[in-house]
Amino acid sequence: MTATTDPGVTVTELPPPTRITLRVADPAGQPLPTRIGAIEGCALCLGPDEWLLEGDAAADLVAGLPGPYSAVEVSDREITYLLEGPAVLDLLATGCPRDLASMPVGAGARTVYDTAQVVLVREANDRFRLTVWRSFAPHVRALFDIAMREIAAGL
After folding, report:
1. 10-15+77-152 has which CATH code?
2. Residues 118, 129: Cα–Cα separation, whole Å
3. What percent of the chain has pLDDT over 90?
4. Where are any strands of DSSP class E within 10-75?
5. Residue partners of 142: CB distance under 8 A and separation at least 6
6. 144 vs 152: CA distance, rounded Å
7. pLDDT at residue 1 in the model
8. In this predicted model, what pLDDT tens digit does every residue of 29-69 receive, in sequence order?
9. The three-state (H, E, C) secondary structure of 65-133, written as one string
10. Are strands 108-113 and 70-73 parallel, antiparallel or unpaired?
């Protein structure tokens, strides 16, 4: 076995975007995806009446909703990591119980990494965004670092 220092994946902390959690009892006719895990524009459907809105268009989308709804700006609550490289699925498999290889590009899901609740968005075959509450971020980042060393060592 040959050891290497390249784990085949990078982890980058991204700057915080505008992030809004949205609850809408009846999304019919709204510019929101209705299939759980689907993403349309800035909106990721997390549940039958729950969305995570991210980016500059988030506030405009909420302003255009007729209501009733609940929208809470949570930009500083979470940290987002960009995970990319040919070993990204190996890295995520060290702490996530989902079969992420079957997650289509352009889809998202709420899941766990180790014991921390996270939101994953698959941006490409070898690239994910993982969002975790700020209080869990140091724990998740430390686990990523351990896993990357293990992957680099061929374990």
Report:
1. 3.30.1360.120
2. 10
3. 84
4. 10-14, 19-23, 39-40, 43-47, 50-54, 70-73
5. none
6. 12
7. 36
8. 888 999 999 999 999 999 999 999 999 999 999 998 887 89
9. CCCCCEEEECCCCEEEEEEECCCHHHHHHCCCCCCHHHCCCCCEEEEEECCEEEEEEEEECCEEEEEEE
10. unpaired
Q: How many angstroms separate the CA atoms of 51 and 47, rounded?
A: 7
- 11 and 148 Cβ atoms separated by less than 8 Å: yes
How does DSSP classify residue 1?
A: -
44 has which bridge partners? 39, 52
Q: Answer yes or no: is pLDDT of 103 > 50.
A: yes
User: What is the residue-averaged pLDDT of the chain?
Assistant: 92
Residue 151 CB coordination number (10 Å): 20
**Spatial separation of the C-alpha atoms in residues 140 and 148, rounded to whole Å:** 12
**In Å, how far are 9, 106, 121 from 67, measured between CA atoms?**
43, 27, 27
74 vs 150: CA distance, rounded Å: 34
Q: Please report, for the chain, the start and end positions of each structural domain, with discontinuous segments joined by +.
A: 10-15+77-152, 19-73
Grade residue 142 by pLDDT with cuts at 50, 70 and 90: very high
Q: What is the DSSP letter of 8?
A: S
| pTM, 2 dp | 0.90
